[in-house]
Amino acid sequence: GKSESTPSRSRQGRHGRTPVAMDLSAGPNILELYQKPVNITTYDTKWIPTSARFVVLGSYARATGCLQIYSLDTENEGVKLNTELEKKAAFKCGTFGASSLRERHLATGNFEGYLQLWDLQRPEKPLMDVKAHTSIVNAIDGAGGQRSGYGPPELVTGGRDGCVRVWDVRQKDAPVAIFEPAEGVKARDCWSVAFGNSFNDEERCVLAGYDNGDVKMFDLRTGTVRSEHNVRNGVCSVEFDRKEIAMNKFVVTCLESAFTVFDARTQHPAKGFSSVTEKVPVSATVWGAKHLPQNREVSMVLGGDGTLMLYKYQYPDQRVVKDKDGVKMGVAGTMNLVNSKNVSTQPISSWDWSPDKEGLAVCGSFDQTVRVVCVTRLNTL
User: Fold this and answer.
1) Are the C-beta atoms of 251 and 242 separated by less than 8 Å?
2) How far apart (Å, rounded) are the C-alpha atoms in residues 363 and 370?
3) Phi, psi angle pair for 12, to nearest 5°
4) Does residue 122 have a pLDDT over 60?
């Protein structure tokens, strides 16, 4: 049609009609591919690596644990339930990060404080079953298992008891590192943990976020606290943009409509890492920010009102400046909102990008629905 050669062709459809608003931008769109109602409260969703299957972890109404495995099935309404298992305690979190792509063992944390490791081919009995925390395991992350990882296969757990513990999956009885409140100090609820800086076989760090706004970075090589910041609001999630590189930046999301990006390349001896705080366009808790595996500058930010917000980080012209004493300081960049879509009336409690197919994701929400989402045209960013 004639419209193909007009200067504004990106705004027009093939036959000269202006398409629906969603297609007006030439950038990425957030599309809901499939919705699957579930009869549980979902707390975590994870793709099984190198597969078209995903795991949903959560709780039945009777407070027992539910582990479901779904596969993408274009014939059968898009998503098919393959396996459903009920366990004694509700599941809170899970990760495949400490497992090889051949084994694909799932590590989980539950409401009774147990860290467990499951072979999804034979999930009747856990391969590892250890009391990791005195009460609920709020968060878990894994490192060292995947093809690009360095260092030992380790898990980190954060609990309501205020402790952060690191576990080697080859030594199942005791943690290899413990970071806990000093004696006489009131324990703060640890809401989130993440590995990073794992760029060789010796270096590895853990980020931990707490309910009082503390963000601590623990150095596993030296066993010390490498940095401490307070973002003045409960920390719902922490994540490095990449685990297996020398730390570049990390994102901290908070209760009251805000998240903060820290430039982790340069640490000032007094001021620590420089940061930028972004207010999201919705009045809600920011449940998480998940970096796209294929592009670390792109992340999906999860809103407590059910809104998905796609952001892209822009580096500053200069990432390092010197203070008046000639000491190097980092400079944070800016986060730009690319697109957003409201998919639920309830919080988006979990999000996992497919490690294999760019733009494909699975997310859970407290509206008892699991969604498979596709973000298109990410290559334009």
Assistant:
1) no
2) 6
3) -120, 150
4) yes
DSSP 286-329: EEEEEEETTEEEEEEEEETTSEEEEEEEE--S-SEEE-TTS-EE
Q: What is the identity of the amino acid at 161?
A: D
pLDDT of 164 reads 98
Radius of gyration, alpha carbons of the chain: 21
Measured from the Cβ of residue 318, the count of other Cβ atoms closer than 10 Å reads 8
DSSP secondary structure letters along 132-159: -SSS-EEEEEEES-STT--S--EEEEEE
* The model's pTM: 0.91
Q: What is the DSSP letter of 245?
A: S
* Residue located via tokens 């853990």: 206
Report the SS3 class of residue 3.
Answer: helix
Collapsing DSSP to helix, strand or coil, 101 comes out as: coil
- 280, two tokens: 């999201």
For 84, counting Cβ atoms within 10 Å of its Cβ (0-12 exposed, 13-18 middle, 19+ buried), the class is: middle
Q: Return the half-sphere exposure (C-beta side, CA atoms, 13 A cut-off) of residue 39.
A: 8
**pLDDT on residue 147:** 63
| b/e burial code for range 235-252 (CB count within 10 A of at least 16 → b) | bbbbbbbbbbeebbbbbb
The string over 365-374, giving b where at least 16 C-beta atoms fall within 10 Å of a residue's C-beta and e elsewhere, is: bbbbbbbbbb
Phi, psi of 321 (to 5 degrees): -130, 170
Amino acid 184: pLDDT:
86
Closest to 40 (Cα-Cα) out of 364, 339, 351, 356: 364
Residue 98 CB: number of other CB atoms within 10 A? 28
Over residues 261-319, the pLDDT tens digits come to 999 999 999 999 999 999 999 999 999 999 999 999 999 999 999 999 999 999 999 99
